[in-house]
Write a structure and sequence with these properties.
It contains one helix and nine strands; from the N terminus they run E-E-E-E-E-E-E-E-E-H. It has 144 residues and is mainly β. The protein has a single domain, classed as Jelly Rolls, CATH 2.60.120. Strands 1, 2, 3, 4, 5, 6, 7, 8 and 9 form a nine-stranded antiparallel sheet that branches. A hairpin with a 5-residue loop joins strand 3 and strand 4. The protein is globular, with a radius of gyration of 18 Å.
Length: 144
C-alpha cells in the first residue's frame, strides 16, 4: 500500500464477507463482514472495518488489537468471568495472546487497529535504532 492518505467514511466502504471460525462459535450466525482500510509499510500493523450480526463466540487474539465501537453493542466476558458492554465510541485494547467470549445481541460495527507482535529482543533493537536516528536528527521525536 502506498503512503497516500486514505479517509473513507464507514458508510462508503464495501465490506467483504467472512466468518467466525467454527470451533469458536457458541451460537447465532457466524457471518462477518470486513474491509482492510490500510496497512503500515512494514506490514506489521493494519486498520480494519469489521461488523457482524447476532452471534456468540470465543475469540483468541493472535495480534494486539485496539478497537473503537461505531454502532450496535457487544458484551465481552474476560478470562476472569467479568462482563463489559461496548457501544459506539467505546475503546478497548486486547494484547496478543488474550482470550475473550463475545455476545452480540443484534449487530456490532467497529474499526480495529491490529499489530503483529514483535519478540522483545527485536523490539529492543528497533527502539534503540529509532532513538539513534532521533539523536542524529534523521527522525523527529514523537510528542507521545
Amino acid at each position: 500500500m502506498s503512503n497516500e492518505f486514505f479517509s473513507p467514511t464507514s458508510a462508503d466502504v464495501v465490506l467483504e464477507p467472512g466468518t467466525v471460525p467454527a470451533q469458536w462459535m457458541l451460537g447465532g450466525q457466524p457471518q462477518t463482514r470486513s474491509k482492510l482500510l490500510g496497512r503500515t509499510p512494514d506490514r506489521l500493523a493494519f486498520v480494519m472495518l469489521w461488523e457482524c450480526g447476532a452471534v456468540s463466540f470465543k475469540w483468541y487474539y493472535s495480534r494486539d488489537e485496539v478497537f473503537i465501537g461505531l454502532s450496535g453493542e457487544a458484551f465481552m466476558i474476560d478470562e476472569k468471568g467479568g462482563e463489559r458492554r461496548f457501544g459506539p465510541g467505546d475503546v478497548a485494547f486486547f494484547p496478543a495472546g488474550s482470550h475473550a467470549t463475545w455476545r452480540i445481541p443484534d449487530h456490532f460495527r467497529k474499526v480495529a487497529f491490529l499489530k503483529d507482535p514483535v519478540l522483545p529482543p527485536a523490539a529492543l533493537v528497533l527502539k534503540a535504532w529509532n532513538r539513534l536516528l532521533q539523536m542524529i536528527g534523521l527522525r523527529e521525536k514523537s510528542p507521545f
